[in-house]
Amino acid sequence: MAGDVGDLAGILESLVGRIARGELRAEDEFMARYQVTARAIAQRHCRRFEAQVDDIVQDVLTAILRKLRAGAIDNPIALPHYLQQALKNACLAFYQQQSNERREDVSALDATPAPRSDPVDLMEYQQRQRMVRALVEELPQPRDREILRRFYIHEESRDDICRALDIDEHHFRRVMSRARQRLREVVEERRGQL
């Protein structure tokens, strides 16, 4: 077993050194050696059948390759762990970015300025409010409609909603996230029909 670790360390040191010296063949070996492993790691940290897995893997391997070229990874034996951590972080960042984009989409529907005395502004405000209400009402799940109505339209606090719907405070985030996702799907469906 100790010989296996020593062999692996020697292989990795050689590979990292050759990449740092600019050997293109070593870069190809790196990609061939870690492509399948990286994909398997990314799939563990992504949703099942995530379409972006290959892009995430390619981005991470390319970023590590750049670091290897620059000599920024000085412990070759840590390369597999570094790869695993980089993929985990990239998958997490991908889903955080998606979540932020969804939040912005839903918030854009509700982010309406307070009506002013200008009749045009007031009319636009009322139209947006009607649109948000109509989209929420299209949701198939009564619980989704209720939580979004209370939160976005009636602007009730999270604590009040949790009490009214008998939802645990920690569970609220998951319920709200799923309701927002379903609302986003309705919004996307409507956009596709325009």
Strands, helices and their partners?
Layout: H1 2-20, H2 24-45, H3 53-70, H4 79-110, H5 119-137, H6 142-153, H7 158-165, H8 169-193
Helix pairs in contact: 1-2, 1-3, 2-3, 2-4, 3-4, 4-8, 5-6, 6-8
By secondary-structure content and strand pairing, the structural class works out as mainly alpha
Portion in strands: under 5%
CATH H-level superfamily title of the largest domain: RNA polymerase sigma factor, region 2, helix turn helix motif
Gyration radius, rounded: 25 Å
Secondary structure tally, helices: 8
Overall mean pLDDT: 80
Shape: elongated
Characterize the biggest β-sheet. Answer: none
Output the keywords:
single chain; mainly alpha; Rna Polymerase Sigma Factor, Chain: A; 8 helices
Report on this model:
The protein is mainly α and 194 residues long. The chain folds into 2 domains: 2-98, RNA polymerase sigma factor, region 2, helix turn helix motif (Rna Polymerase Sigma Factor, Chain: A, Orthogonal Bundle), CATH 1.10.1740; 112-193, Arc Repressor Mutant, subunit A, CATH 1.10.10.10. The protein contains 8 helices and no strands. It has helices at residues 2-20, 24-45, 53-70, 79-110, 119-137, 142-153, 158-165, 169-193. α1 packs across α2 (24-45), α2 (24-45) crosses α4 (79-110) and α6 packs across α8 (169-193). The longest helix has 32 residues, at 79-110. It is elongated. The protein starts with a helix and ends with a helix. The relative contact order is 0.07. The mean pLDDT is 80.
